[in-house]
């Protein structure tokens, strides 16, 4: 059991450390608005539960549900969201006009989290195959607990003096850029469209 806990913690850190940057940008995007933390937390949890569900179903032989070749195409989600955010920034639209939380919604966070989870799924499936039902349960519960910690870590980073100002000033351009690069990276690394 202790071995599963240590392995799960290490596996989570390795596959989710990049989320700190993305979540920090979400916090910058929703700075000063009510419900930002709740929207980001719920979106991250929904997206991560989706990642776990696909990994578990795939590990348990449900690969007809989501063939491995389909995973890279999830890169289209952050790519489209990033292109839309870039278009809005280019047009100079006031973020407050887009929605009440400056673009931070549960659905957006969940979609980006899920789309960025291709590496998680690819790593979790063989691990889940090797640890049995009890191990999958331990890993999944720890992953969910660590997801909560990850959101609070990103909030901590995004609210540090200096970093918060930098993120708030640059998020209008950084947010779309990070999503576009993330989407392209997912598509290319997975070989989507023959890339």
Written overview of the protein:
With 195 residues, the chain is mostly helical. About 4% of the residues have low confidence. The chain has 8 helices and no strands. It starts with a helix and ends in a 5-residue tail after the last helix. Helix content is 76%, strand content 0%. The protein is globular.
Quick summary:
The chain is mostly helical.
What key phrases describe this protein's structure?
195 residues, mainly alpha, globular
> Segments where pLDDT lies below 50 for 5+ residues?
94-101
**Judging from the principal axes of the Cα atoms, what is the shape?**
globular
Assembly form of the protein: single chain
Tell me about the biggest sheet?
A: none
Query: Beta-sheet strand percentage?
Result: under 5%
* Order of helix and strand elements from N to C terminus: HHHHHHHH
Average pLDDT, rounded to a whole number, is 82
**Helix-strand category:** mainly alpha
Rounded to the nearest angstrom, the distance between the terminal CA atoms is 41 Å
Number of helices: 8
Radius of gyration: 17 Å
The helicity comes to over 70%
Q: Can you count the beta strands?
A: 0
């Amino acid at each position: 059991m202790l071995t599963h806990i240590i392995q799960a913690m290490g596996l989570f850190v390795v596959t989710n450390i990049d989320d700190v940057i993305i979540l920090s940008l979400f916090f910058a995007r929703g700075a000063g608005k009510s419900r930002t933390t709740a929207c980001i937390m719920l979106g991250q949890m929904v997206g991560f539960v989706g990642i776990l569900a696909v990994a578990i179903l795939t590990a348990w032989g449900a690969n007809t549900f989501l063939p491995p070749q389909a995973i890279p195409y999830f890169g289209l989600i952050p790519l489209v969201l990033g292109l839309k955010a870039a278009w809005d920034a280019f047009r100079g639209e006031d973020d407050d006009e887009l929605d009440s939380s400056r673009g931070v919604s549960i659905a957006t966070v969940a979609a980006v989290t899920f789309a960025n989870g291709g590496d998680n799924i690819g790593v979790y499936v063989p691990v889940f195959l090797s640890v049995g039902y009890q191990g999958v349960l331990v890993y999944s519960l720890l992953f969910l607990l660590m997801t909560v910690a990850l959101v609070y870590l990103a909030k901590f980073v995004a609210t540090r003096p200096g970093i918060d100002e930098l993120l708030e000033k640059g998020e209008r351009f950084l947010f779309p850029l990070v999503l576009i690069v993330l989407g392209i990276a997912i598509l290319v690394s997975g070989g989507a469209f023959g890339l």
